[in-house]
TrEMBL record:
<dbReference type="InterPro" id="IPR029052">
    <property type="entry name" value="Metallo-depent_PP-like"/>
</dbReference>
<dbReference type="InterPro" id="IPR052900">
    <property type="entry name" value="Phospholipid_Metab_Enz"/>
</dbReference>
<feature type="domain" description="PhoD-like phosphatase metallophosphatase">
    <location>
        <begin position="143"/>
        <end position="476"/>
    </location>
</feature>
<protein>
    <submittedName>
        <fullName>Alkaline phosphatase</fullName>
    </submittedName>
</protein>
<dbReference type="Pfam" id="PF09423">
    <property type="entry name" value="PhoD"/>
</dbReference>
<dbReference type="InterPro" id="IPR032093">
    <property type="entry name" value="PhoD_N"/>
</dbReference>
<feature type="domain" description="Phospholipase D N-terminal">
    <location>
        <begin position="32"/>
        <end position="130"/>
    </location>
</feature>
<dbReference type="Pfam" id="PF16655">
    <property type="entry name" value="PhoD_N"/>
</dbReference>
<dbReference type="InterPro" id="IPR018946">
    <property type="entry name" value="PhoD-like_MPP"/>
</dbReference>
<dbReference type="InterPro" id="IPR038607">
    <property type="entry name" value="PhoD-like_sf"/>
</dbReference>
Protein backbone atom coordinates (compact mmCIF):
# COMPACT_ATOMS: atom_id res chain seq x y z
CA UNK A 1 0.00 0.00 0.00
CA UNK A 2 1.22 3.52 -0.81
CA UNK A 3 1.26 5.74 2.32
CA UNK A 4 0.21 9.35 1.84
CA UNK A 5 2.59 11.84 3.44
CA UNK A 6 2.42 15.61 3.85
CA UNK A 7 5.54 15.92 1.69
CA UNK A 8 3.87 13.87 -1.07
CA UNK A 9 0.83 16.14 -0.99
CA UNK A 10 3.02 19.26 -1.22
CA UNK A 11 5.03 17.82 -4.14
CA UNK A 12 1.79 16.81 -5.88
CA UNK A 13 0.39 20.29 -5.38
CA UNK A 14 3.54 21.89 -6.82
CA UNK A 15 3.38 19.60 -9.85
CA UNK A 16 -0.26 20.50 -10.39
CA UNK A 17 0.56 24.21 -10.19
CA UNK A 18 3.37 23.79 -12.70
CA UNK A 19 0.95 22.49 -15.33
CA UNK A 20 -0.76 25.84 -15.59
CA UNK A 21 2.32 28.01 -15.15
CA UNK A 22 2.47 30.63 -17.88
CA UNK A 23 -0.78 29.38 -19.45
CA UNK A 24 -4.40 30.47 -19.06
CA UNK A 25 -6.19 28.45 -16.41
CA UNK A 26 -8.69 25.90 -17.71
CA UNK A 27 -12.35 26.00 -16.86
CA UNK A 28 -13.55 22.77 -15.26
CA UNK A 29 -12.27 20.08 -17.68
CA UNK A 30 -14.13 17.14 -16.10
CA UNK A 31 -17.49 17.75 -17.77
CA UNK A 32 -17.58 14.21 -19.25
CA UNK A 33 -17.27 12.39 -15.95
CA UNK A 34 -15.12 9.38 -15.16
CA UNK A 35 -15.24 5.68 -15.94
CA UNK A 36 -13.46 2.41 -15.32
CA UNK A 37 -13.40 -0.77 -17.32
CA UNK A 38 -12.31 -4.35 -17.99
CA UNK A 39 -11.33 -5.31 -14.42
CA UNK A 40 -8.76 -8.01 -13.75
CA UNK A 41 -7.97 -9.75 -10.46
CA UNK A 42 -5.18 -7.24 -9.80
CA UNK A 43 -6.20 -4.12 -11.69
CA UNK A 44 -8.63 -1.99 -13.65
CA UNK A 45 -8.54 0.60 -16.42
CA UNK A 46 -9.40 4.18 -15.32
CA UNK A 47 -10.67 6.75 -17.85
CA UNK A 48 -11.49 10.42 -18.19
CA UNK A 49 -11.35 13.00 -20.97
CA UNK A 50 -10.73 16.71 -20.51
CA UNK A 51 -13.31 18.96 -22.20
CA UNK A 52 -14.24 22.31 -20.61
CA UNK A 53 -16.39 23.08 -23.69
CA UNK A 54 -17.61 19.58 -24.53
CA UNK A 55 -19.86 20.40 -27.50
CA UNK A 56 -17.29 22.41 -29.45
CA UNK A 57 -17.78 21.76 -33.18
CA UNK A 58 -14.09 21.08 -33.75
CA UNK A 59 -14.30 18.11 -31.37
CA UNK A 60 -11.47 19.46 -29.22
CA UNK A 61 -13.70 20.19 -26.22
CA UNK A 62 -12.29 23.68 -25.70
CA UNK A 63 -8.84 22.30 -24.87
CA UNK A 64 -5.54 23.94 -25.88
CA UNK A 65 -3.28 22.19 -28.39
CA UNK A 66 -0.85 20.99 -25.73
CA UNK A 67 -0.57 18.09 -23.33
CA UNK A 68 -2.00 18.51 -19.83
CA UNK A 69 -0.72 16.62 -16.82
CA UNK A 70 -3.47 14.80 -14.95
CA UNK A 71 -3.12 13.28 -11.49
CA UNK A 72 -5.05 10.18 -10.51
CA UNK A 73 -5.67 8.43 -7.20
CA UNK A 74 -7.29 5.16 -6.21
CA UNK A 75 -8.31 4.47 -2.63
CA UNK A 76 -10.13 2.01 -0.41
CA UNK A 77 -12.59 4.69 0.76
CA UNK A 78 -14.50 7.41 -1.05
CA UNK A 79 -12.96 10.14 1.15
CA UNK A 80 -9.48 9.06 0.00
CA UNK A 81 -8.09 8.64 3.50
CA UNK A 82 -6.61 5.27 2.45
CA UNK A 83 -5.00 5.90 -0.92
CA UNK A 84 -3.35 2.77 -2.32
CA UNK A 85 -2.12 3.98 -5.72
CA UNK A 86 -1.53 7.38 -7.28
CA UNK A 87 0.29 8.74 -10.26
CA UNK A 88 0.22 11.10 -13.21
CA UNK A 89 -0.74 10.74 -16.86
CA UNK A 90 -0.68 13.08 -19.84
CA UNK A 91 -3.87 14.09 -21.63
CA UNK A 92 -2.65 14.68 -25.17
CA UNK A 93 -4.41 16.54 -27.99
CA UNK A 94 -3.78 13.75 -30.51
CA UNK A 95 -5.89 11.47 -28.27
CA UNK A 96 -8.66 14.00 -27.68
CA UNK A 97 -7.16 14.82 -24.26
CA UNK A 98 -8.35 11.45 -23.03
CA UNK A 99 -6.64 9.61 -20.19
CA UNK A 100 -6.38 5.82 -19.91
CA UNK A 101 -4.63 4.59 -16.77
CA UNK A 102 -4.08 0.84 -16.44
CA UNK A 103 -3.75 0.44 -12.67
CA UNK A 104 -2.14 -2.78 -11.43
CA UNK A 105 -1.07 -4.16 -8.06
CA UNK A 106 -4.57 -4.09 -6.52
CA UNK A 107 -6.18 -6.74 -4.33
CA UNK A 108 -8.46 -9.37 -5.91
CA UNK A 109 -12.18 -9.02 -5.36
CA UNK A 110 -11.94 -5.58 -3.75
CA UNK A 111 -13.92 -2.35 -4.02
CA UNK A 112 -12.02 0.87 -4.80
CA UNK A 113 -12.71 4.56 -5.38
CA UNK A 114 -10.85 6.78 -7.83
CA UNK A 115 -10.63 10.38 -9.02
CA UNK A 116 -8.58 12.68 -11.26
CA UNK A 117 -7.29 16.24 -10.91
CA UNK A 118 -5.84 18.74 -13.38
CA UNK A 119 -5.06 22.46 -13.38
CA UNK A 120 -6.65 22.98 -9.95
CA UNK A 121 -9.84 21.03 -10.73
CA UNK A 122 -10.90 17.69 -9.24
CA UNK A 123 -13.20 15.19 -10.95
CA UNK A 124 -16.12 13.42 -9.39
CA UNK A 125 -15.37 10.18 -7.56
CA UNK A 126 -15.90 6.87 -9.29
CA UNK A 127 -16.44 3.44 -7.74
CA UNK A 128 -14.82 0.37 -9.22
CA UNK A 129 -13.68 -3.10 -8.27
CA UNK A 130 -11.33 -5.89 -9.21
CA UNK A 131 -12.45 -9.40 -10.10
CA UNK A 132 -11.83 -12.37 -7.79
CA UNK A 133 -8.56 -14.29 -7.92
CA UNK A 134 -8.37 -16.66 -10.92
CA UNK A 135 -8.61 -19.77 -8.71
CA UNK A 136 -11.52 -18.46 -6.57
CA UNK A 137 -15.19 -19.08 -7.23
CA UNK A 138 -15.94 -16.00 -5.15
CA UNK A 139 -19.29 -14.72 -4.00
CA UNK A 140 -22.28 -13.61 -6.00
CA UNK A 141 -21.79 -11.25 -8.96
CA UNK A 142 -24.41 -8.64 -9.80
CA UNK A 143 -23.99 -7.67 -13.45
CA UNK A 144 -26.24 -5.35 -15.48
CA UNK A 145 -26.20 -5.11 -19.25
CA UNK A 146 -27.67 -2.60 -21.66
CA UNK A 147 -27.61 -1.36 -25.24
CA UNK A 148 -29.03 1.14 -27.72
CA UNK A 149 -29.08 4.61 -26.18
CA UNK A 150 -30.30 7.06 -28.83
CA UNK A 151 -29.93 10.49 -27.21
CA UNK A 152 -32.74 12.06 -29.27
CA UNK A 153 -35.28 9.33 -28.52
CA UNK A 154 -35.53 9.95 -24.81
CA UNK A 155 -33.95 10.61 -21.47
CA UNK A 156 -31.32 8.26 -20.06
CA UNK A 157 -33.27 7.53 -16.87
CA UNK A 158 -32.64 3.80 -17.32
CA UNK A 159 -28.92 4.47 -16.78
CA UNK A 160 -29.75 6.22 -13.52
CA UNK A 161 -31.93 3.31 -12.37
CA UNK A 162 -29.16 0.89 -13.34
CA UNK A 163 -26.72 2.89 -11.20
CA UNK A 164 -29.16 2.75 -8.28
CA UNK A 165 -28.99 -1.06 -8.44
CA UNK A 166 -25.24 -0.74 -7.66
CA UNK A 167 -23.99 -3.60 -9.87
CA UNK A 168 -20.47 -4.99 -9.60
CA UNK A 169 -20.02 -4.95 -13.37
CA UNK A 170 -21.81 -3.38 -16.36
CA UNK A 171 -21.70 -4.65 -19.93
CA UNK A 172 -22.68 -2.36 -22.79
CA UNK A 173 -23.44 -4.36 -25.92
CA UNK A 174 -23.42 -1.67 -28.57
CA UNK A 175 -25.13 1.39 -30.03
CA UNK A 176 -23.74 3.47 -27.19
CA UNK A 177 -24.17 6.51 -29.42
CA UNK A 178 -25.87 7.18 -32.77
CA UNK A 179 -24.47 8.80 -35.87
CA UNK A 180 -27.54 10.64 -37.20
CA UNK A 181 -27.91 14.38 -37.62
CA UNK A 182 -30.71 16.15 -35.78
CA UNK A 183 -34.17 14.91 -36.68
CA UNK A 184 -33.22 12.27 -39.25
CA UNK A 185 -34.14 9.39 -36.92
CA UNK A 186 -37.41 10.17 -35.15
CA UNK A 187 -39.03 8.09 -32.43
CA UNK A 188 -42.79 7.46 -32.43
CA UNK A 189 -44.31 10.55 -30.85
CA UNK A 190 -41.31 12.72 -31.73
CA UNK A 191 -37.86 13.34 -30.28
CA UNK A 192 -37.74 15.07 -26.88
CA UNK A 193 -34.16 16.30 -27.46
CA UNK A 194 -31.73 16.79 -30.34
CA UNK A 195 -28.27 15.83 -31.50
CA UNK A 196 -25.63 18.50 -31.94
CA UNK A 197 -23.75 18.63 -35.22
CA UNK A 198 -24.11 16.84 -38.57
CA UNK A 199 -24.15 13.11 -39.21
CA UNK A 200 -20.88 11.85 -37.79
CA UNK A 201 -18.26 11.23 -40.48
CA UNK A 202 -15.08 12.95 -39.25
CA UNK A 203 -13.02 12.61 -36.10
CA UNK A 204 -14.31 16.01 -34.95
CA UNK A 205 -17.91 14.85 -35.50
CA UNK A 206 -17.46 11.63 -33.53
CA UNK A 207 -15.64 13.39 -30.69
CA UNK A 208 -18.44 15.95 -30.42
CA UNK A 209 -21.15 13.28 -30.47
CA UNK A 210 -19.47 11.15 -27.81
CA UNK A 211 -19.06 14.27 -25.70
CA UNK A 212 -22.74 15.14 -26.00
CA UNK A 213 -23.70 11.70 -24.73
CA UNK A 214 -21.12 11.78 -21.95
CA UNK A 215 -22.49 15.10 -20.62
CA UNK A 216 -25.73 13.32 -19.69
CA UNK A 217 -25.87 13.16 -15.89
CA UNK A 218 -27.63 9.77 -15.79
CA UNK A 219 -25.03 8.18 -18.06
CA UNK A 220 -22.29 9.64 -15.87
CA UNK A 221 -23.91 8.03 -12.83
CA UNK A 222 -23.90 4.62 -14.49
CA UNK A 223 -20.24 4.94 -15.49
CA UNK A 224 -19.23 6.06 -12.01
CA UNK A 225 -20.94 3.22 -10.13
CA UNK A 226 -19.03 0.20 -11.51
CA UNK A 227 -16.48 -0.93 -14.09
CA UNK A 228 -17.83 -1.40 -17.62
CA UNK A 229 -16.89 -3.76 -20.41
CA UNK A 230 -18.00 -2.40 -23.78
CA UNK A 231 -18.34 -3.56 -27.38
CA UNK A 232 -19.70 -1.65 -30.34
CA UNK A 233 -22.45 -2.51 -32.78
CA UNK A 234 -23.24 -0.48 -35.90
CA UNK A 235 -24.28 3.03 -34.83
CA UNK A 236 -20.95 3.85 -33.21
CA UNK A 237 -19.80 4.06 -36.86
CA UNK A 238 -22.70 3.84 -39.34
CA UNK A 239 -25.99 1.95 -39.53
CA UNK A 240 -25.63 -1.72 -40.58
CA UNK A 241 -21.98 -1.45 -41.66
CA UNK A 242 -20.16 -4.71 -42.31
CA UNK A 243 -16.36 -4.87 -42.23
CA UNK A 244 -15.25 -2.49 -45.00
CA UNK A 245 -18.73 -2.21 -46.52
CA UNK A 246 -20.87 0.91 -46.14
CA UNK A 247 -24.52 0.54 -45.09
CA UNK A 248 -25.67 0.97 -48.71
CA UNK A 249 -23.01 -0.59 -50.95
CA UNK A 250 -24.98 0.44 -54.03
CA UNK A 251 -24.27 4.07 -53.11
CA UNK A 252 -20.51 4.67 -53.21
CA UNK A 253 -19.04 6.31 -50.14
CA UNK A 254 -15.34 6.63 -51.01
CA UNK A 255 -14.49 8.03 -47.56
CA UNK A 256 -15.99 5.09 -45.62
CA UNK A 257 -12.67 3.62 -44.47
CA UNK A 258 -11.50 7.05 -43.30
CA UNK A 259 -14.83 7.36 -41.50
CA UNK A 260 -14.32 3.96 -39.89
CA UNK A 261 -10.83 4.95 -38.72
CA UNK A 262 -12.17 8.20 -37.25
CA UNK A 263 -14.98 6.39 -35.45
CA UNK A 264 -12.58 3.81 -34.00
CA UNK A 265 -10.23 6.55 -32.83
CA UNK A 266 -13.06 8.44 -31.10
CA UNK A 267 -14.38 5.21 -29.59
CA UNK A 268 -11.02 4.52 -27.98
CA UNK A 269 -10.73 8.10 -26.73
CA UNK A 270 -14.14 7.96 -25.07
CA UNK A 271 -14.26 4.43 -23.64
CA UNK A 272 -12.51 2.66 -20.75
CA UNK A 273 -10.69 0.15 -22.98
CA UNK A 274 -7.00 -0.75 -23.15
CA UNK A 275 -6.37 -1.34 -26.84
CA UNK A 276 -5.77 1.55 -29.22
CA UNK A 277 -6.82 1.46 -32.88
CA UNK A 278 -4.36 0.83 -35.68
CA UNK A 279 -5.84 2.76 -38.59
CA UNK A 280 -9.06 1.05 -39.62
CA UNK A 281 -8.54 -1.82 -37.18
CA UNK A 282 -9.21 -2.12 -33.45
CA UNK A 283 -9.10 -5.54 -31.82
CA UNK A 284 -12.10 -5.32 -29.53
CA UNK A 285 -12.84 -8.99 -28.76
CA UNK A 286 -11.41 -10.02 -25.42
CA UNK A 287 -12.23 -11.89 -22.22
CA UNK A 288 -13.15 -10.54 -18.80
CA UNK A 289 -12.68 -13.26 -16.22
CA UNK A 290 -14.55 -13.14 -12.91
CA UNK A 291 -12.57 -15.74 -11.00
CA UNK A 292 -13.89 -19.21 -11.73
CA UNK A 293 -17.48 -18.02 -11.48
CA UNK A 294 -17.82 -16.49 -14.95
CA UNK A 295 -15.87 -15.74 -18.10
CA UNK A 296 -17.28 -13.01 -20.34
CA UNK A 297 -16.28 -13.49 -23.97
CA UNK A 298 -16.79 -10.03 -25.45
CA UNK A 299 -17.37 -10.34 -29.21
CA UNK A 300 -17.14 -8.03 -32.22
CA UNK A 301 -19.81 -9.00 -34.78
CA UNK A 302 -19.21 -6.00 -37.10
CA UNK A 303 -15.54 -5.61 -37.94
CA UNK A 304 -14.97 -9.05 -39.48
CA UNK A 305 -18.39 -10.03 -40.85
CA UNK A 306 -19.36 -10.76 -44.43
CA UNK A 307 -21.81 -8.25 -45.87
CA UNK A 308 -25.42 -9.00 -45.02
CA UNK A 309 -27.05 -11.46 -47.41
CA UNK A 310 -29.83 -10.72 -49.88
CA UNK A 311 -29.57 -6.95 -49.52
CA UNK A 312 -30.06 -6.93 -45.72
CA UNK A 313 -33.34 -6.60 -43.80
CA UNK A 314 -36.04 -9.21 -43.13
CA UNK A 315 -35.82 -11.69 -45.99
CA UNK A 316 -36.48 -15.21 -47.16
CA UNK A 317 -32.89 -15.88 -48.13
CA UNK A 318 -31.31 -19.31 -48.83
CA UNK A 319 -27.88 -17.62 -49.01
CA UNK A 320 -27.98 -17.17 -45.23
CA UNK A 321 -27.29 -20.92 -44.96
CA UNK A 322 -24.05 -20.72 -46.97
CA UNK A 323 -21.46 -22.43 -44.70
CA UNK A 324 -18.75 -19.93 -45.69
CA UNK A 325 -20.67 -16.92 -44.39
CA UNK A 326 -19.31 -15.51 -41.12
CA UNK A 327 -20.38 -12.84 -38.66
CA UNK A 328 -17.30 -13.27 -36.48
CA UNK A 329 -14.58 -13.94 -39.04
CA UNK A 330 -12.58 -17.17 -38.92
CA UNK A 331 -9.92 -15.94 -36.47
CA UNK A 332 -12.42 -14.67 -33.88
CA UNK A 333 -14.50 -17.84 -34.19
CA UNK A 334 -11.40 -19.94 -33.49
CA UNK A 335 -10.48 -17.69 -30.55
CA UNK A 336 -13.97 -18.17 -29.11
CA UNK A 337 -14.12 -21.95 -29.56
CA UNK A 338 -10.59 -22.35 -28.17
CA UNK A 339 -11.70 -20.30 -25.18
CA UNK A 340 -14.65 -22.63 -24.61
CA UNK A 341 -12.38 -25.70 -24.70
CA UNK A 342 -9.95 -24.25 -22.15
CA UNK A 343 -12.57 -22.72 -19.84
CA UNK A 344 -12.78 -23.65 -16.17
CA UNK A 345 -15.60 -21.18 -15.45
CA UNK A 346 -18.96 -22.11 -13.98
CA UNK A 347 -20.65 -19.79 -16.50
CA UNK A 348 -19.34 -18.90 -19.98
CA UNK A 349 -21.07 -15.77 -21.21
CA UNK A 350 -21.07 -14.21 -24.68
CA UNK A 351 -21.29 -10.42 -24.54
CA UNK A 352 -22.35 -9.60 -28.07
CA UNK A 353 -24.59 -7.44 -30.18
CA UNK A 354 -27.24 -9.05 -32.38
CA UNK A 355 -29.96 -11.69 -31.99
CA UNK A 356 -28.33 -15.12 -31.68
CA UNK A 357 -31.29 -17.51 -31.68
CA UNK A 358 -33.18 -18.25 -34.85
CA UNK A 359 -36.20 -15.96 -35.21
CA UNK A 360 -38.80 -16.54 -37.91
CA UNK A 361 -40.88 -13.46 -38.64
CA UNK A 362 -43.25 -15.23 -41.10
CA UNK A 363 -46.40 -16.84 -39.73
CA UNK A 364 -47.18 -20.23 -41.24
CA UNK A 365 -45.14 -22.00 -43.91
CA UNK A 366 -41.79 -20.58 -44.97
CA UNK A 367 -39.33 -18.37 -43.12
CA UNK A 368 -38.39 -14.70 -43.02
CA UNK A 369 -35.28 -13.90 -41.01
CA UNK A 370 -33.18 -10.89 -40.06
CA UNK A 371 -30.10 -10.80 -42.30
CA UNK A 372 -28.34 -8.39 -39.91
CA UNK A 373 -28.43 -10.94 -37.05
CA UNK A 374 -26.86 -14.39 -36.59
CA UNK A 375 -29.71 -15.80 -38.72
CA UNK A 376 -27.92 -14.28 -41.71
CA UNK A 377 -24.84 -16.33 -40.79
CA UNK A 378 -26.52 -19.57 -39.71
CA UNK A 379 -23.56 -21.95 -40.10
CA UNK A 380 -21.30 -19.68 -38.06
CA UNK A 381 -24.00 -19.53 -35.36
CA UNK A 382 -24.44 -23.30 -35.35
CA UNK A 383 -20.70 -23.93 -34.97
CA UNK A 384 -20.64 -21.61 -31.96
CA UNK A 385 -23.72 -23.29 -30.47
CA UNK A 386 -22.09 -26.70 -30.98
CA UNK A 387 -19.09 -25.34 -29.06
CA UNK A 388 -21.34 -24.84 -26.02
CA UNK A 389 -20.86 -28.56 -25.35
CA UNK A 390 -17.31 -27.72 -24.21
CA UNK A 391 -18.48 -25.56 -21.31
CA UNK A 392 -20.51 -26.19 -18.18
CA UNK A 393 -23.09 -23.44 -18.79
CA UNK A 394 -23.45 -21.17 -21.83
CA UNK A 395 -25.33 -17.86 -21.71
CA UNK A 396 -25.65 -15.42 -24.62
CA UNK A 397 -26.22 -11.72 -23.90
CA UNK A 398 -27.63 -9.58 -26.71
CA UNK A 399 -28.63 -6.00 -27.50
CA UNK A 400 -29.62 -4.29 -30.78
CA UNK A 401 -33.32 -5.05 -31.19
CA UNK A 402 -34.91 -2.39 -28.90
CA UNK A 403 -36.99 -4.94 -27.00
CA UNK A 404 -36.44 -7.46 -24.23
CA UNK A 405 -36.42 -11.13 -25.22
CA UNK A 406 -35.55 -14.42 -23.57
CA UNK A 407 -34.92 -17.62 -25.51
CA UNK A 408 -33.64 -21.17 -25.25
CA UNK A 409 -30.79 -21.91 -27.65
CA UNK A 410 -31.65 -25.18 -29.43
CA UNK A 411 -29.45 -27.86 -30.94
CA UNK A 412 -31.76 -27.92 -33.99
CA UNK A 413 -33.97 -24.97 -34.76
CA UNK A 414 -36.40 -27.01 -36.88
CA UNK A 415 -37.22 -29.26 -33.91
CA UNK A 416 -38.64 -27.57 -30.79
CA UNK A 417 -38.14 -30.83 -28.88
CA UNK A 418 -34.40 -30.90 -29.59
CA UNK A 419 -31.89 -30.38 -26.81
CA UNK A 420 -31.53 -26.94 -25.24
CA UNK A 421 -27.81 -26.16 -25.29
CA UNK A 422 -27.74 -22.60 -23.97
CA UNK A 423 -29.78 -19.58 -23.00
CA UNK A 424 -30.12 -16.13 -24.58
CA UNK A 425 -31.00 -12.95 -22.68
CA UNK A 426 -31.74 -9.87 -24.78
CA UNK A 427 -31.75 -6.38 -23.30
CA UNK A 428 -34.16 -3.81 -24.59
CA UNK A 429 -32.87 -0.35 -25.44
CA UNK A 430 -32.07 2.45 -23.01
CA UNK A 431 -34.08 4.87 -25.18
CA UNK A 432 -34.08 3.78 -28.84
CA UNK A 433 -37.61 3.53 -30.15
CA UNK A 434 -39.12 5.94 -27.64
CA UNK A 435 -41.51 4.97 -24.85
CA UNK A 436 -42.43 1.58 -26.30
CA UNK A 437 -45.20 -0.65 -24.99
CA UNK A 438 -45.72 -3.91 -23.17
CA UNK A 439 -46.31 -5.74 -26.45
CA UNK A 440 -46.35 -5.16 -30.20
CA UNK A 441 -49.25 -6.07 -32.50
CA UNK A 442 -47.23 -8.87 -34.12
CA UNK A 443 -45.93 -10.33 -30.84
CA UNK A 444 -48.38 -13.23 -30.51
CA UNK A 445 -47.76 -14.46 -34.06
CA UNK A 446 -43.96 -14.28 -33.66
CA UNK A 447 -44.01 -16.15 -30.36
CA UNK A 448 -46.25 -18.85 -31.83
CA UNK A 449 -43.81 -19.30 -34.71
CA UNK A 450 -40.80 -19.52 -32.38
CA UNK A 451 -41.59 -21.79 -29.40
CA UNK A 452 -38.03 -21.52 -28.09
CA UNK A 453 -38.69 -17.83 -27.36
CA UNK A 454 -39.97 -17.59 -23.80
CA UNK A 455 -40.29 -13.86 -23.19
CA UNK A 456 -40.91 -10.52 -24.93
CA UNK A 457 -41.43 -6.96 -23.70
CA UNK A 458 -41.26 -3.71 -25.66
CA UNK A 459 -40.48 -1.20 -22.89
CA UNK A 460 -37.14 0.57 -22.43
CA UNK A 461 -34.68 -0.51 -19.74
CA UNK A 462 -31.91 -3.02 -19.07
CA UNK A 463 -31.29 -6.49 -17.62
CA UNK A 464 -29.97 -7.05 -14.12
CA UNK A 465 -28.39 -10.44 -13.47
CA UNK A 466 -27.07 -12.17 -10.37
CA UNK A 467 -24.54 -14.97 -10.88
CA UNK A 468 -23.93 -17.58 -8.19
CA UNK A 469 -22.42 -21.05 -8.34
CA UNK A 470 -25.92 -22.55 -8.53
CA UNK A 471 -27.87 -20.23 -10.84
CA UNK A 472 -28.14 -17.05 -12.82
CA UNK A 473 -31.15 -14.90 -12.05
CA UNK A 474 -32.17 -12.42 -14.73
CA UNK A 475 -34.49 -9.50 -13.94
CA UNK A 476 -35.84 -7.68 -16.99
CA UNK A 477 -36.04 -4.08 -15.74
CA UNK A 478 -38.37 -1.71 -17.58
CA UNK A 479 -39.52 1.92 -17.61
CA UNK A 480 -42.94 2.94 -18.85
CA UNK A 481 -41.66 6.11 -20.50
CA UNK A 482 -38.46 7.88 -21.59
CA UNK A 483 -40.03 10.84 -23.39
CA UNK A 484 -39.67 12.79 -20.15
CA UNK A 485 -37.19 12.28 -17.32
CA UNK A 486 -37.67 10.59 -13.97
CA UNK A 487 -39.56 7.38 -14.78
CA UNK A 488 -39.58 4.73 -12.05
CA UNK A 489 -38.27 1.27 -12.91
CA UNK A 490 -39.95 -2.06 -12.26
CA UNK A 491 -39.06 -5.69 -12.86
CA UNK A 492 -41.23 -6.81 -15.77
CA UNK A 493 -40.25 -10.46 -15.42
CA UNK A 494 -37.64 -12.66 -13.73
CA UNK A 495 -36.10 -15.93 -14.89
CA UNK A 496 -33.57 -18.36 -13.48
CA UNK A 497 -30.99 -20.42 -15.37
CA UNK A 498 -29.94 -23.34 -13.21
CA UNK A 499 -26.46 -24.83 -13.15
CA UNK A 500 -26.21 -27.60 -15.77
CA UNK A 501 -29.85 -27.00 -16.80
CA UNK A 502 -29.78 -24.63 -19.80
CA UNK A 503 -32.93 -22.75 -20.58
CA UNK A 504 -35.17 -20.18 -18.93
CA UNK A 505 -37.26 -21.02 -15.86
CA UNK A 506 -39.68 -18.24 -14.94
CA UNK A 507 -39.69 -17.08 -11.33
Amino acid sequence: MTHVTRRALIIGGLALTAVGAGSPKLADPFTLGVASGDPTFDGVLLWTRLAPTPLAEDGLGGMPSRAIEVRWEIALDERFRRVVRRGTAWARPELGHSVHVDVRGLRPGAEYFYRFSADGHVSRVGRTRTSPAPWALGGALTMAFASCSQFEHGYFTAYKRLAEDEPDLVLHLGDYQYEYKKGSYVAPGGNPRDHEGPETETLANYRQRHAQYKTDADLQEAHAVAPWSVVWDDHEIDNNWADEVYEKPEIPQPNFLARRAAAFQAYYENMPIRRRPDGIDLKLHRRVEWGRLATFHMLDTRQYRDDQACGDGLKTCPERLNPTRSITGAAQEKWLLDGFRSSCARWDVLGQQVFFSQLDFMAGAGERNNMDAWDGYAANRDRVAAGFSSVRNAVVLTGDVHAAWGADVKARWDDPASKTVGTELVSTSITSGGDGSEERPETAAILAENPHVKYFNNRRGYVRTRFTSREVRADFRGLDYVSRPGAPVSTKASFVIEDRRPGLHRV
